[in-house]
Amino acid sequence: MVITESRPRTWPLWLLALPAFVAVWSGWVGMGKLCGFGVVQPLPGIWDSLHLDTSITLPIGMEAYAAYAIKVWLSGEGSPAAVQFARRSTITALTVGALGQVIYHLLTAAGVDHAPWPITALAAVLPVGVLGMGATLAHLVQQPHDEYAGNAGNTGLPPTHVTAEYVVPRATRATTAPTISGAARLPQRPAPRRNTTTTRKTSSAGDTAARVADLLSEDRHLTSAAIADRLGCSERTARRHRTAALAQLDSPAEADEAHNHIDIRTDTEKEHAA
User: Fold this and answer.
1) Residues 32/55, Cβ–Cβ less than 8 Å
2) Would you tell me how many other CB atoms lie within 10 Å of the CB of residue 138?
3) In 13-40, which positions are buried (b, 16+ CB within 10 angstroms) versus exposed (e)?
4) 235, 224 in Cβ contact below 8 A?
C-alpha cells in the first residue's frame, strides 16, 4: 500500500486574488492618472512609435513587491535579517497600498481631476522607494546564513556587514585574553615556560624516599616489588630507597653513609645523563 501526500488546493486563493487584483490595479492606475502619470515616449528618436503609459508602474511596483516580501516573510527564506526586513517592508507596502486606494476613491467620489501636490509628490517617489526595498531584500536573501551575524547588532551595521574579526586558531585559544565586544581578537603570546625538570625530580625523589621510609617503619619485610606497586615507581627506584631506609632504621651512622652513597650514585647518573 503506497501512501501519497495530497497537496493543498490553491484555486481558492486564485479566486480570492482575482477580484482584489482588478480593484487594486484599477485603483493605482487611476491614482497615477490623477498624479500626472500618463503616456510617454521612453525612446524618442530611437523608437518613436513606442509609447508607454507610466501609470502602470504604481500597481506593478507596489503590489509585486508586497507579494515578494510576503513570500520571504512567511517562508523563512534567507537569514533572520532578511525575514525581519521582509516582515517590516510587507506591513509598510500593504499600508501604503491601502492608503493609496482610500485616497483615490475619495478623490474620485469628490470629483477631483488632479490630486493635491502632497499626494502627487508621494506617488512620484513610490517607484524609487520600491526599487530600494526590493534591492535590499534581494541582497539579504542571497546572503548565506552567518552564525556570527548577531555580533553586528552592537555596531549599528546591517547583519551582512559585520566588522572584521580575527579568528583565533584552536591551538592558541587557551592562551588568548578576553576581548571586548566589537573589538578585534588578537592572539597573545604565551609566557615562557620555566625549566622545572630538575626541581621536580629532586622533590619527587625526596617524597619517594620519605614514603618508602614510612612503609618500612610499619613493615620492614616489604620487598622492593611490593613497594614499587604501592608507590607506582620502578622496582629499581624502590630498591634504592629501601636500602637507604633500612640502613637508616638499623644504624643512624650507617644510614648517613648509605645516604651519601646514594647521593654519589645520583650525581653520577645525572652526569651520564647530561
Assistant:
1) yes
2) 13
3) eeeeeeeeeeebeebbbbbbbbbebeee
4) yes
CB 48 within 8 A of CB 18: no
Q: Which amino acid would we find at residue 116?
A: P
Give the residue carrying C-alpha cell 511596483: 61
What confidence tens digit (pLDDT) does each residue in 207-262 have?
888 888 888 788 877 888 888 888 888 888 888 888 888 888 776 554 455 555 55
- Determine the Cα–Cα distance for residues 211 and 137; give it in Å rounded to an integer: 75
**Cell numbers for 63:** 503590489
H-type helices in the chain, by residue range? 11-34, 57-75, 80-109, 117-142, 197-218, 224-231, 235-250, 252-273
Banded pLDDT at 91 (limits 50, 70, 90)? very high
Residues written for the chain: 274
pLDDT band per the 50, 70, 90 thresholds, residue 117:
very high
Q: Rounded distance, CA 243 to CA 27, Å? A: 109
- Short-list 90, 72, 159, 100, CA closest to 130: 90
Q: Answer yes or no: is pLDDT of 185 > 70.
A: no
pLDDT given for residue 132 in this prediction = 93
Query: Domain locations in the chain?
Result: 16-144, 200-273
